[in-house]
Amino acid sequence: MDQVKIGKFIAECRRKENLTQMQLAEKLGITDRAVSKWETGKSLPDSSIMLELCSTLGITVNDLLSGEVVTMDNCNKEMENNLLEMIRQKEEADRRLLKLEIVMGIVAVFPLIAATVIASIVPMEEWKGSLLVGLSLLPLLIATPFALKIEHKAGYYACKECGHKYVPKYVNVFFAMHMHTTRYMRCPKCGKMSWQTKVLTKE
User: Fold this and answer.
1) Is residue 23 in some structural domain?
2) What are the beta bridge partners of residue 158?
3) How many Cβ atoms are within 10 Å of 155's Cβ, its own excluded?
4) C-alpha to C-alpha distance for 164 and 161, rounded to whole angstroms
5) pTM listed for this prediction
6) CA atoms 67, 73, 78, 79: torsion sign
7) 62 phi and psi, to 5 degrees?
8) CATH code for position 18
9) What is the per-residue pLDDT across 155-176, written as a single tens digit (0 to 9) for each?
10) Is the Cα torsion angle 156, 162, 168, 172 positive or negative in sign?
11) What is the DSSP string of 81-147?
């Protein structure tokens, strides 16, 4: 999807409806800064507000994502292209999220490794060494829930037994045994426990 093209289209439709950025923002319950970002191609409207925006501007969601009024002749083709592009963008966003999870894990574990090495090399009282290692655990304890939330949100888990791909509840991910992003969980479709791998698409 061409964000700049979509932005220009939003601005054009807004002007046709005789609305200022501020007036459109008020109708949608957002800031005029958000509307400005759309119209300059810096961001896209959130999916939760697309229907209301389209209704206000007198266009369809397909028109919005195409950046132009779509005729009946090429409606299905444009709809398919827009859907594929949205799927591609979600996959790319999920891929970035999973990379971020790895970075967070490395950053959080580093203090623990450093503290353990220091405590074993530098002469100090036993309680001080224990305290140092204990404090170094804090970044890991803080980062873990956030990293798990990222993993939970990105992509799907694939059941090893039946191949079903799904998004489990966060609590299931949190308490499951795991090897990085592969987790031992019960499949909601076949009901069997298996090591379920993280995948980015349902295809």
Assistant:
1) yes
2) 165, 197
3) 23
4) 8
5) 0.49
6) positive
7) -60, -40
8) 1.10.260.40
9) 889 999 998 999 899 888 888 9
10) negative
11) HHHHHHHHHHHHHHHHHHHHHHHHHHHHHHHHHHHHHHHHHS---HHHHHHHHHHHTHHHHHHHHHH
Within-domain flag for 39: yes
Residue 194 φ then ψ, to 5°: -160, 165
Query: CA-to-CA distance for 24 and 11, rounded, in angstroms?
Result: 10
For the segment 8-25, what is each residue's pLDDT rounded down to a tens digit? 999 999 999 999 999 999
Q: Which residue is associated with the tokens 């299905």?
A: 76
| pLDDT higher at 203 or 42 | 42
Tokens of 160: 């090893």
* pLDDT at residue number 84: 67
157 domain-assigned: no
Q: What Å distances lie between residue 158 and 90, 109, 149, 179, 182, CA to CA?
A: 18, 28, 18, 14, 9
Domain hosting 65: range is: 3-70
Query: In terms of Cα–Cα distance, which of 149, 146, 168, 150 is closest to 159?
Result: 168
How much is the pLDDT for 196?
92
Q: Domain tally for the chain?
A: 1
Domain-embedded: residue 87? no
